[in-house]
Amino acid sequence: MPEETATATQPPSGPVLPARSRPRGRASALWAVGCGCTALVVLVLALFVRLAWGSSDFPRVAPEDAAGRAFQRSQEAYDVMGFTRTVRPGVEDIGVSTENTLGAGSCYSGGLLSLDEPVAGAYQMSHRWALNHVPASQAVPGLRRLHQQLMDDGWDVTSYRDGEKDNWDLFVQRDDGDERMYFTWFPDREYFMGSATGPCAYDPGWQEGDTGSVDDGLRPPTLRPARPS
């Protein structure tokens, strides 16, 4: 009976890679696509969370510092307009008399799922000012000059109405609307109004349960005409 000879399989020359370590073009491509999809999903989820819940990552700024910044914006606009009157703090008759006041508003996260609840401890400071008895000869060239100056300074003009016979309006903003200013002149009443609103911030002195407004007790400086150069 012939002997049965087992045929041995000769090992290939060179090292043998484990089956899982052998590179495979299709598998590698699928793995790369899978990683890319995962990263995309994570990015989309992060973006959705930000849009849904908004952002309340505001800096901590003392109310008096925010008030000083808003007032400075108004003073700069006042200088460009070329007004020569002195406006003391306060207001006697809103929309009729001169005005130079501060006010603080609430801040919101702004997310898609926001319930319009203000962010606790956050505020947005504004400075308002107004002049009566402002004729066209002063308001018209002043607003045109201010419009050009603010554009040169990098502000985004969101609205500008060169009214001629109607009201004149100028609205500007910067940093995606964190800072805003508006100016309006009413020809029929010869009344000019301006406002500067700063970005949202946390009051460093705020504590849970505090009531009242951060502008309590704050008074702006006197608006003064530009010093002659």
Short description:
With 229 residues, the protein is an alpha+beta fold.
Features:
alpha+beta, 8-stranded antiparallel sheet, 229 residues, disordered N terminus
Describe, in plain words, how this protein is organized in 3D:
With 229 residues, the protein is of the alpha+beta class. It starts with 24 loop residues before the first helix and ends in a 27-residue tail after the last strand. It is globular and about 50 Å long. 28% of the residues lie in helices and 21% in strands. Strands 1, 2, 3, 4, 5, 6, 7 and 8 form an eight-stranded antiparallel β-sheet that branches. The protein has three helices and eight strands, in the order ααβββαβββββ. The model is unreliable at 1-24, 29-33 and 39-54 (pLDDT under 50). Strand 5 (168-174) and strand 6 (179-186) form a beta hairpin.
The outline comes out as globular
Total beta strand runs: 8
Which radius of gyration do the C-alpha atoms yield?
32 Å
Question: What is the mean pLDDT?
Answer: 80
Q: How much strand? A: 15-25%
- Oligomer description: single chain
Low-confidence runs (pLDDT<50, min 5 residues)? 1-24, 29-33, 39-54
> Structural class of the helix and strand makeup?
alpha+beta
**What series of H and E elements makes up the topology?**
HHEEEHEEEEE
Largest sheet: 8 strands, antiparallel
Distance between the termini: 124 Å
Share in helix? 25-40%
What is the number of helices? 3
